[in-house]
Specification:
This protein has 18 helices and 14 strands. It has a domain at 225-302. The longest helix is centred in the first third of the chain and has 20 residues, at 80-99. It has helices at 15-20, 22-36, 49-57, 67-75, 80-99, 123-134, 138-156, 164-182, 185-198, 226-230, 237-240, 271-283, 289-305, 338-347, 352-370, 411-423, 427-442, 457-460, and strands at residues 105-107, 112-114, 161-163, 212-214, 220-221, 252-253, 258-259, 307-309, 316-318, 320-321, 327-328, 330-332, 380-383, 397-399. The strands form 6 sheets. It has a 3-stranded antiparallel beta sheet with strand order 3-4-5. It has a 3-stranded antiparallel beta sheet with strand order 12-13-14, with no helix packed on it. With 470 residues, the chain is mainly alpha-helical. The N and C termini lie far apart (48 Å). α8 packs antiparallel against α9 (185-198), α14 (338-347) packs antiparallel against α15 (352-370) and α15 crosses α16.
């Protein structure tokens, strides 16, 4: 069986482990739903949170990203959708807290904790800190914070190789975000200690991190993918000269910059590279012109080489370019982060046609849910692009064989949240509600929390806020 890709890195985990790690993904999905249905006072994109983080980054004492800011909005008059999202989050966290003993994930079948790597990293706890904080669940946050202050460093820094990419975006990112939200200095101390250990990964040459690193022995090895490289804002001068359309194969010989015979994808193995082009430009307070140039170039390359339309409805999909340069009519759920990215770029001055494309791709990502009776999208969807002999040979949209599972991916809901904030169109909230209800119906477990669905076909067919650096 093909192994599902973890968000952004493309790193494989078995379907069983992906199921057991469901809270990591649930936290992101539910958190995005919460923002989607958030109070109207927060309808302006980024208002409050952005200014708060900017204020902290420049040392200003007055800021709004504090307990009162989030608690007020979580404890005020909530809509039915907001109340449901908050209840789902509490339920999932309570199950993890009660049964997993602060390990990496909760096995919802055995009601016990488990580890992703050779030793625990408390991944769920660290990855959820900012989610708990922004939802106003400060008792839960304080409990996790107190444990982390005393125990986390000993838990994290043990012998055994871990993923440099995953630990950076989840553990290091979670700790930094928790610090900037709460101003609790032990999070910064923990992040510093973890970052010092992670630097051992830069032993593979050409300033590129190895794929795996032992945080104690500092032994590192393994060739990284494009997403694993691009997420760390490293120097790309060499590869830029080789790929003039802004699109880079997911596998590159990083010793010489030559492309391997590999596909081009905005999904697994490639997604984070393109995402971080825009986000590094934004984090630089829009001063890094090279990142902006590379992002615009990549979007134009995507337009010219990677978009297709289904038949007969004309859904625009973001496919992948195979090793021979041909467009494959398939779209990964992972690629459904792209509409939100395009809309975010438009919000910060990118052309209007970026928003137009974002809306088209969002429509497609939503249809990937709606075409199943369960209203849960498969991991990969195949599209029919033409008719043969006057009729369509197969269904316009279908789940790719062995990729017909749903593992609580957050990308579509994340894009719905951003599109709603940018356009104020209520349809995006409606779609978010549909997905939320489908998760509640098909993924909720009696023992607590939410699980993956192994085959959506049986029904009928990976963010941590950071400051702006001024």
């Amino acid at each position: 069986m093909r192994r599902p890709h973890d968000r952004r890195s493309g790193g494989g985990l078995s379907l069983r482990v992906s199921t057991l790690r469901r809270w990591l993904l649930t936290a992101m999905a539910i958190g995005a739903v919460w923002l989607l249905v958030s109070l109207s006072s927060l309808s302006a994109p980024g208002r409050g949170l952005r200014s708060a983080l900017s204020a902290r980054a420049t040392g200003r004492a007055a800021h709004v990203a504090n307990r009162a800011f989030f608690k007020q909005r979580a404890s005020g008059k909530l809509s039915a959708d907001q109340a449901q999202v908050l209840a789902m989050t509490k339920r999932a966290w309570s199950a993890y807290r009660e049964h997993a003993e602060r390990r990496d994930f909760l096995d919802v079948h055995a009601l016990a904790g488990g580890s992703v790597y050779a030793h625990d990293m408390a991944l769920t706890l660290v990855d959820s800190l900012d989610t708990l904080f922004v939802l106003g669940l400060h008792e839960e946050f304080d409990d996790a914070s107190a444990w982390a202050k005393v125990r986390l460093q000993r838990v994290m820094l043990q012998r055994g190789r871990v993923s440099f990419f995953e630990v950076t975006i989840r553990s290091l990112g979670g700790l930094l975000s928790a610090y900037y939200l709460s101003a609790e200095t032990h999070f910064l101390d923990l992040a510093t200690a973890l970052a010092d250990s992670l630097t051992a990964a830069f032993a593979c040459g050409r300033a590129m991190p190895c794929q795996k690193v032992d945080l104690v022995s500092t032994v590192a090895r393994g060739e990284p993918s494009l997403a694993e490289i691009g997420t760390f804002q490293l120097e790309f001068a060499l590869v830029e000269t080789s790929f003039t359309d802004g699109l880079i194969p997911v596998r590159v010989n990083w010793a010489n910059g030559w492309a391997s015979r590999a596909k081009i994808s905005w999904g697994a193995h490639g997604d984070s590279y393109y995402e971080y082009l825009l986000k590094q430009w934004l984090q630089s307070d829009k001063k890094d012109d090279e990142m902006r140039r590379q992002y615009v170039l990549a979007v134009e390359g995507m337009r010219s080489r990677m978009l297709g339309q289904s038949h007969p409805s004309g859904f625009t999909f973001l496919g992948e370019v195979d090793e021979l340069g041909q467009l494959r009519p398939v779209m990964e759920h992972l690629a459904c982060f792209v509409p939100g990215l395009l809309a975010l770029g438009y919000l910060h001055g990118m052309p209007k046609d970026h928003l137009d494309l974002a809306q088209e791709l969002t429509r497609t990502c939503v249809q990937m849910y709606l075409f199943t009776e369960s209203k849960l999208a498969p991991e990969i969807t195949r599209f029919t692009t033409e008719e043969l002999f006057g009729f369509t040979a197969r269904a316009e949209m279908s789940a790719v064989r062995n990729d017909d599972y749903y593992i609580l991916r957050p990308e579509t809901v994340e894009s719905l949240m951003v599109l709603h904030r940018v356009t104020h169109d209520p349809i995006y909230r409606e779609h978010g509600r549909t997905i939320m209800n489908a998760i509640e119906k098909h993924c909720r477990t009696d023992s607590g929390g939410y699980r993956s669905v192994h085959r959506v076909i049986v029904f009928n067919t990976e963010a941590h806020p950071f400051p702006i650096l001024k």
